[in-house]
Amino acid sequence: MTVRALERIVVVGGGIAGLTACDTLRERGFDGELIVVGSEPHAAYSRPALSKALLKLDGDLAAHELAPATHGAREIRGASAVGLDVERRTISLEDGDELAYDGLIIASGSRAKRLSDHPGELTLRGLDDAHALRNRLADRPDVVVLGGGVLGMEIASGAVAAGCRVTLIATSEPMSRQLGAHVSGILTRSARERGVRIVVTASASVDADGERPVVRTSDGSTYGSDVLVSAVGDVPNTEWLRVSGLLTGGRLLADGHGRVAPGVVAAGDVTGWGPGGVRTPLWTSAIEQAKAAASALLDPEARALRFQNYFWTEQFGHSVKAVGPLPVHGSPEVLVGGGDAAPALLRWQGADGIRSVISIDHRIPIPRLRRLTDAASD
Length: 378
Ligand SMILES: Cc1cc2nc3c(=O)[nH]c(=O)nc-3n(C[C@H](O)[C@H](O)[C@H](O)COP(=O)(O)OP(=O)(O)OC[C@H]3O[C@@H](n4cnc5c(N)ncnc54)[C@H](O)[C@@H]3O)c2cc1C
Prior knowledge:
By secondary structure, the protein is of the alpha/beta class. It folds into three domains: about 170 residues, 3-Layer(bba) Sandwich (FAD/NAD(P)-binding domain); about 120 residues, 3-Layer(bba) Sandwich (FAD/NAD(P)-binding domain); about 60 residues, no CATH class. It is about 20% helix and about 30% strand. The strands form seven sheets. A six-stranded mixed sheet has the order 3-2-1-7-21-20, with helices on one face. A five-stranded parallel sheet has the order 9-16-10-11-12, with helices on one face. A five-stranded antiparallel sheet has the order 23-24-27-26-25. It is globular and about 60 Å long. The N and C termini lie far apart (about 45 Å). The mean pLDDT is about 95.
């Protein structure tokens, strides 16, 4: 089957999904014109490093850097796409310019969710946020972190290591929604041992107290601090697609190949993927989706993505790796370790028979971790 010849492919988003898509197009033999439009002024970098090495006052300040791009695309940095016309195959930029394409890759990612407009409510999504937060932590302020997910716990870990007094406010036991009660217990115990005060509340909001933002919890308590960082989730960057006709109930949904419309594919944090339309805002998911989507743009016979989610986190002296569906529920099968101590290798049987494996401080290579989800590994 032949498709419209692709002479020019435009990629919107200069993050890891955009970069991987460009590399994949070249690897698959696309030698036409490639243009990347990205809102940030920076070349693609490792976002996971921002809440890990980059928050450590003695950490490697270049930890976020990736190898220089070799795809030869024209990169238009510091420029945002503001509209898409799929009939005319053009995207419009905020300065009024239009860019025509034969193929389009949507990789505009997501941004941090906020709970107020208060300028003192900080978030951590981009490189500039990380530098700003790192500078603030150097003065050892009192810090309130709002959110007990992966990002909130990594920020609390970085702040307490920097010598700050840290309060973490969460609407469930930290990390329990992602990794279940067992692993949450190990991580929150380490956080408390390092001096983090953990407040679990039914709900929390951010209010202004004069110049300062404060967190108000559902029992009426307020928590002020020198620095407030919210880590309460992310919002996909889909506003520029609003009149494109590509959104379903406000969401961008790609099939199992990443296809969205003729000549248009999507990958990464911006898009729901596959039959369930589930968004998986994780680093390796963005990479694998971008490879699949770029391949599908070039080849109508490309195979659908088959991928087992993988993610990792570093916090309070622990290194955690997880493979398979999350969250996990119930008690794990203990493969290595014992009780609620680390190092440990733990496995859960999901309701649908699909297994998840989590390692804590265990030096198991990722391919072996993946194999432990197979029934054949018993
Ligand atoms: C601090 C932090 C730590 C993380 N740690 C981990 C981790 O340990 N493990 C893990 O698996 N995942 C982690 N993640 C998630 C992971 O980084 C993301 O899943 C991944 O970066 C998504 O890549 P992406 O290319 O889809 O989106 P993004 O990285 O968001 O890139 C999208 C790019 O598109 C740009 N853009 C947005 N709108 C437009 C527009 N209209 N026009 C042009 N450009 C636009 C954005 O500015 C951005 O540069 C972390 C995320 C954060 C924020």
